[in-house]
Predict the 3D structure of the following.
Amino acid sequence: MHTRNLIGGEWVGAESGAVFPVRNPATDETLAEVPDCGTTETARAIDAAAAAFEGWRALPAHERSAPLRRLSDLMLAEVEPLATLLSREQGKPLAEARGEIRYGASFVEWAAEEAKRVYGETIPASTPGKRIVVLRQPVGVVAAITPWNFPNAMITRKIAPALAVGCTAVVKPAEQTPLSALALGDLCARAGLPAGVVNIVTGRDPAPIGAALFADPRVRHVSFTGSTEVGRVLMRQAAANITRLSLELGGHAPFIVFEDADLDKAVAGLMASKFRNAGQTCICANRVLVQESIADEFVARLRGAIAGLQLGPWDSPDATVGPLIDDDAVAKVERHIADARAGGASVRTGGTVISPRAGLARRFVEPTILEGVKPGMLCTREETFGPVVPITRFATEAEAVRLANDTPFGLAAYFYTRDASRLIRVAEALEYGVVGANDGAPSTAQAPFGGVKHSGFGREGGKHACQDYTELKYVSIGL
Ligand code: NAP
C-alpha cells in the first residue's frame, strides 16, 4: 500500500510531516495515514508536471501510447489487490470494485489507442498562394480533482486522455479515498510513464490545493468531478487565469417506464442504475416515473428484485449493497425519506438504516421504495445518494417528459419503451447529456459522457475526451 504522495517521480510526505487517516466506512477501521498537503506541495507537483511536459509532448504518439497500454495491462493483471483496496476504503462490494478497476482500465486502453489519432486538418485557402494547416496540440499541465464514489475510474477517465495527447497531470483525489489514487500512481510509474508526468497530492482540506492549482498560470485545464456546489466555486476561481475547465457535476436522473415497456428489462435496468455503489453515483435513477396503467405491476416486480439484494461490507461474499460513505450521507438519506413520508409518500419496502452485524457501522441503508412521491419533495430536487427508489405515476408521454426535464440537472436520463417512434421522440426531448433508452448502464469508454445545465460541461470518454485536452492552432502559410 502506497501512503505517500507521488511528485516528480518521488514518493514524498507533506513538508510539515502532517498526515490524516483513511478509514473503512463499513467498520471505521483506520486503513492508513496519508500526507496532509496544501499549497507548498501542490506548487511542487505543478513544477514537476511543467518540467515533464516538454519532453512528454515531444514523444512520438506511439511512444506515449506504449506506457498507457502497459498501465491498462497492469491494472487488469492486478484487479484483485486494486479492487480489495478500493472496496475497503470506499465501501462498495468487492465484485463492484473489480468492475470499477476494469472500467477504469478500459479508459486507459482506449486513450492508448486514441493517442495515435490526434489528427489535425488542412483547409482549402481562399487564395492560391496560401495553405491553411490546423494543428491539435496538448493544452499543457492538467489538474484532475476527483470524488470518492469512483476512486479509480474517475481518475483514469481524466488523466488517460490528457496523457495520450501529450499533457502532464496533477491529481487531487478525494479525501476519503486517496489510497486507490496512490495505488494507481504506483502503476503509472511501473508502466514506464516518465517522472513528473503524473503527480498526486493528497490533503484533508481541498480549498488551498484547489486555490493553488487555479492561481498557477501553468495549469491550463482543470478537470473536476464532484458536486455542482463545488463546481460553482471552481468556475469562479478559473476566471483569474482563464483556466480551461471540464465540470462533471451532480445529476438527478429520471427513469421513465412507459406502459409499452418490457417490464422485466425495465426492472433489471433500474436495479443496475439505482443500486450500484448503494445509489451513490451521479447517474443513478433519482426519480422513477411510471405510467399509471402498469405501475402496480412494475412495483410488485421491483419489490421482488429488491428482495434479492444483500447488505454487507466489502469482505462479505454475498453483499450487493455496501455502506454509505459517512454519517452525513446517512443523515441526508434519512432526511429525504422523512420528508417524503411527511408529504404523504409511503414506504413500500426498506426505509431504515442498520448495522448488518456486530462491529459494523450503522451506515447500511435498506433498499427502499417510496410510493406516491410528488414533485417538490426533497428527493425530487436533490441527489439522494442512497439506495432509495422514489416512484411517481404519470398519465401521458408529454407529462413524463415534462416531469423528467423539470430539474436544473442534466446528466443522465433513462426510459423504457418498445415503441420505436416514441424511442426517438423521447430521446430527442430529454434535456440530458446521456440517455439510456432501454439501457440502465450506458457508461462506456468509447462514448462521450457528460452533462448539460447544472450537471456541467466537457465530455469524458471516446475521441471527445482527447479533444478536451487539446488546443487548435491554425497556421496560415504563405507560399
Ligand atoms: P465534492 O464534495 O464536490 O468533492 C469532489 C472533489 O472536490 C473532492 O476531491 C473534494 O475534496 C474536492 N473539493 C471540494 N471542495 C474543493 C475546493 N474548494 N477546491 C478544490 N477541490 C475541492 O463531491 P463528492 O461528495 O466527493 O462527490 C459526490 C458528487 O460528485 C455528487 O454530486 C456526484 O453526482 C458527483 N459526481 C459526478 C460525476 C459525473 O461524472 N458527472 C461522477 C461522479 C460523481 P475533499 O474530498 O477533500 O472534500
Remarks:
- The radius of gyration is 23 Å.
- The chain has two domains: 5-249+455-478, 253-443.
- Residues 145-150, 154, 172, 174-175, 206-207, 210, 225-227, 230, 233, 248-251, 282, 383, 411, 451 surround NAP (CB under 6 Å).
